[in-house]
Write a structure and sequence with these properties.
Layout: E1 8-11, E2 14-17, E3 20-21, H1 35-46, H2 58-68, H3 72-79, E4 89-90, H4 95-116, E5 123-124, H5 133-144, H6 148-161, H7 164-171, H8 177-184, H9 186-195, H10 199-222
């Protein structure tokens, strides 16, 4: 899309381009629920080049998703990650990796246990281990209670990180976004540090990190 506007303003929480309301892909008004998020989205539109690159406007993309698509289906999809919580699957060896996982992941599981009154089954290897039904139900209820904008912001954290617990930790301020990303990619980062990696793998992880951090920033702006 070519840039067709000069001025970006905010009208009652909605983004306006030269005085006309910006629209989502589904043609709804691009309206944000809080001023901080509206200002940040407006800055993305102000900073767009002559040819608009949606990848350079991640907050706008998440807002579009919140308005057009976030709802019970998304909540159910994210809640299912509780059934195969990443932090419950530990390496058997080498000892250094086992220790790093315990150091990074145990505090998050302990936080979730205390915060939501749940229990987790932890195992080694990759064979599926069912989590307690009460845990799955409780975390599902937590996700289901979120509004559309928080669901949209939470989605990249869950899907990129693979951990519902870490994503909720970011949402509730129990862990920083950078630390959460590194925790969710601990095994990959450890392998890269030990054996090295090619440029394509590093580039893919950098993009994943950017998308993860955008989701975290979206959530933070909602709470501002």
């Amino acid at each position: 899309m070519k840039r067709f506007w000069k001025d970006v303003t905010i009208i009652d929480g909605a983004i306006a381009l030269d005085g006309r309301l910006a629209r989502t892909p589904a043609r709804a008004a691009l309206t944000l629920p809080v001023s901080a998020l509206a200002q940040a989205v407006a800055e993305e539109w102000r900073g767009a080049g002559e040819t608009v690159d949606p990848r350079a406007m991640p907050l706008t993309g998440l807002a579009n998703a919140a308005i057009d698509r976030a709802g019970p289906d998304l909540a159910a999809s994210l809640a299912r990650y509780a059934e195969s919580e990443l932090l419950a699957y530990r390496a058997e060896a080498p000892p250094e990796l086992v220790a790093r996982e315990a150091e990074a992941w145990n505090p998050l599981l302990e936080w979730a246990r205390g915060r939501y009154d749940v229990a987790f089954a932890v195992t080694t290897g990759i064979v599926h281990l069912a989590q307690p039904p009460a845990t799955v139900a409780r975390l599902g209820a937590v996700v289901g209670a979120l509004d559309a904008f928080r669901l949209a912001g939470l989605a990249p954290l869950v899907t990129i990180g693979g951990s519902l617990v870490a994503a909720l930790g970011v949402l509730e301020g129990a862990i920083g976004a950078e630390a959460a990303f590194d925790a969710c990619h601990l095994d990959e980062l450890w392998q890269a540090g030990r054996w090295g990696e090619d440029a394509l793998a590093a580039q893919a992880r950098d993009q994943a990190r950017a998308d993860f951090l955008a989701g975290a920033r979206f959530l933070a702006l909602l709470a501002a």
